[in-house]
Amino acid sequence: MLRFALRRLLIMIPIAVIVTFLVYAMVFALPGDPIRALSGQKPLAESVIAAKRAYYHLNDPLFVQYLHFMGNLLKGDLGQTFDGQDIGEQLALRWPVTLQLGLTALAIQLVLGLVSGVYAGWRRDGLVDRALLGATLGVLAVPGLVAMFFAQSFFAVELSWFPVSGATDGWPGSYLLPATVLGVLGFAGLARVTRTSIAEVASADFVRTARAKGLAPNRILWGHVLRNAMLPVITYIGLDLAGILGGAIITEGIYNLNGIGQFMFRSIAMKEGGVVVTLSTVLLLGYMLVNLVVDLLYGLLDPRVRHV
Amino acid sequence: MNRPMAAEPLLDVRDLSVEFDTRAGRLRAVDFVSWTLHRGRTLVILGESGSGKSVSTQAITGILDSPPGHVTGGQALFDGMDLLTLTERARRGVVGSRISLVFQDALSALNPVHTVGRQIAELYRVHRGTSRSDAMKRAAEMLDRVGIPGARGRVHDYPHQFSGGMRQRVMIAMALALGPEVLIADEPTTALDVTVQAQILELLAEIQADTDMGVVLITHDLAVAAEIADDLVVMYAGRVVESGATADVLGDPQHPYTQGLLQSVPSAERRGQDLPAIPGTPPDLMRLPSGCPFRPRCPHAHDRCVTERPALQPAPGELRFGACHLLDQPLSPEGAAR
């Protein structure tokens, strides 16, 4: 298992280099000169522009710029925005907001999706299974934005159960409504994947063996079905975390939560290339970390993966 | 039916019927099947795919997928109980410990994410309440008993780390763990090559000699049946067409289906000649022909076979039964004409 983990970790290094370089190159290729854009209508003196360009290494070739950027990143220096704020500090301020929103949404999604999916799959074609099929279809049919705005106007404005926007109430007050909407939107896919996986494993040969061993249904579910059925589910959750992060950017905008999503959104609007690259890189690394965890969990759950 | 054999039957299946709900309607997969297993004997159920041989044993042990399968009639008497009417809880006390099963494909029949030791130990834990470490120790003993080298270390291995033959030994170890009185083996050697197949059959015979358990072996392989069966039940289209002691059934087959099967076995004497085969294909259970289901493929079929289904009736010899109208009018070359 340790060798398996190390191997997975080693594979991540070249992927991280390639992916961050691609993001960097894409931002590099964007049209417009960021220093000139910074000054707006009034042109800057040539000497100032030259100094700024030298400071940000903008005259170096792409690859050298990338190396500077990665070097600083590894030293923990994320650089500055063009108006002189430290990106690292900004991130430190905003991470908790996004993390609280994302994790709360994830928790709601996992509880709803796993419980209903496992139950429906184990009692396939039962009442819960049919109800779940209808409910997930409904949820999948509603566009996320519509649900967000509707929930805000109905539960927050109309009924006043939750604050309308902002994070001033802290956790959980300010996060409950947006996280619930995010979680319920995400639960449909998870519930379906779980339901199908459980139902499929329940008809596997080794489950028949378990019945032939005289095991009680609960023991068969917990001891034999669940662990096998979790393999595709974990893969799905790993992929879906990206969806939650993407959803968080929109949600933070609608509910005015000052997190990474807001920061990213503003930086794109202001053409802050450096910030966008840094944020994307951090998000990508985070995403790769999640994938690593998924891979490791996979190896932990399925010995066949471990021994390949 | 008179039963001259004095010994009390170990497992007595009477008039078992099983139906399946399919999209196209209900079909009868097992139709009034009866057989009797005695202590220390091996009963082979012989038949091609779809003849109902596996379904009948799955129905008895309560592991039939239900729905779509339903037992619609019959009895399965074991130690004074009717297995078919036991509560699920009571049946769980019998199946797995006193009656156990071995399946065809051990790779898919074993849980891929648990060690083989854990899967065997589970039986001791659930049925006997044995402690975890004791159960593992016994699992290792079982692996050793079925001839797995280095059993003590191999309990910690997973099914995919074993070869096909060793995996089937693991299955057998699991089935024998609690010292069952009845072992039902559903095509245990079909997925294995011939040498390994012989080893597994030998192992089963050895264990049976030690323990006096009754073995029900399901196969479509006439050679396997001839080698190990004490008693033989031949099934066709969900029905028993012939049953009796193996030597009698194979030496003097009464039913045209059994005769056809025996003729289609390759032999040295008929080298160079075409191998006779039973013409046609097994019937679709949804659209069984009227009368005798074997009629369209039978060389001896006559008018009565179209209108009247032959019942299982005593045939010449001890404890022999056949389901063919020819048993009423003994087979002769002239009589066979339509």
How would you describe what is shown here?
Chain A is mainly α and 308 residues long. Chain A has two domains: 73 residues, no CATH class; 175 residues, MetI-like (MetI-like fold), CATH 1.10.3720. Chain A contains 13 helices and no strands. The radius of gyration of chain A is 24 Å and the shape is flat. The relative contact order of chain A is 0.13. With 338 residues, chain B is an alpha/beta fold. Chain B has a domain of 73 residues. Chain B has twelve helices and twelve strands. Chain B is globular, with a radius of gyration of 21 Å. Chain B starts with 10 loop residues before the first strand and ends in a 16-residue tail after the last strand. Classes of the chains: A mainly alpha (308), B alpha/beta (338). The interface between A and B is medium-sized, with 23 and 30 residues. Chain A: Keywords: Cell membrane, Membrane, Transmembrane, Transmembrane helix, Transport. Chain A: One of its GO terms (biological process) is transmembrane transport. Chain A: Pfam families: BPD_transp_1 (PF00528), BPD_transp_1_N (PF19300).
CATH topological fold name of the largest domain in chain A: MetI-like fold
CATH superfamily of the largest domain in chain A: MetI-like
Instruction: Write out the strand line-up for the largest beta sheet of chain B, numbering strands in chain order.
Output: 6-7-8-3-9-10-12-11
Separation of the first and last Cα atoms of chain A: 11 Å
Number of domains of chain A: 2
State the major sheet of chain A: none
- Overall pLDDT metric of chain B: 86
* Class inferred from helices and paired strands of chain A: mainly alpha
Q: Measure the end-to-end span of chain B.
A: 31 Å
Oligomeric category: heterodimer
The biggest sheet of chain B, with number of strands, parallel, antiparallel or mixed sense and barrel status, is: 8 strands, mixed
- Per CATH, which architecture of the largest domain in chain A? Orthogonal Bundle
Give the largest interface pair and sizes. Answer: A-B, 23 and 30 residues
> What form of chain B results from the Cα inertia axes?
globular
Please estimate the helix content of chain A: over 70%
In DSSP terms, counting alpha (H) and pi (I) runs of 4 or more, how many helices of chain B? 12
The tally of beta strands of chain A, per DSSP, is 0
How does the helix and strand content of chain B classify structurally?
Answer: alpha/beta
SS strand fraction of chain A? under 5%
Report the portion of residues of chain B in β strands: 15-25%
